[in-house]
């Protein structure tokens, strides 16, 4: 039996839900684990602290995008997603900057979240034509 085609709207909702779960995992597992690791000090500790601050609004931004989409306010959904997609890049910048550039402890997580948010943004953009 052939299944019904999935609409772009349904794909958007699936992707935004996955992005939200991924962001929740980054905050509640990855960042929290790094914050409690007492061997992380100095510049790296500062970067992790700053990434925790930068990631703090991401869940709210994704929920705003979800709610705006459901209200058919696509411009607000796009603005919220566009803000969320910059968060991992900002986190990565902190590791790269400063007197001592260090390898990011969140590089994989940041890249994954960026890709997931970009997929959601792409679905939303396709729906707007």
UniProtKB/TrEMBL annotation:
One of its GO terms (molecular function) is enzyme inhibitor activity. InterPro entries: Invertase/methylesterase_inhib (IPR035513), Pectinesterase_inhib_dom (IPR006501). The keyword Disulfide bond applies. Keywords: Disulfide bond, Signal. Residues 4-123 form the Pectinesterase inhibitor domain. It holds the Pfam family PMEI. SMART domains: PMEI. Signal peptide: none annotated. It comes from the Eukaryota. PANTHER family: OS02G0537100 PROTEIN, PECTINESTERASE INHIBITOR 12. Belongs to the PMEI family. This is Pectinesterase inhibitor domain-containing protein.
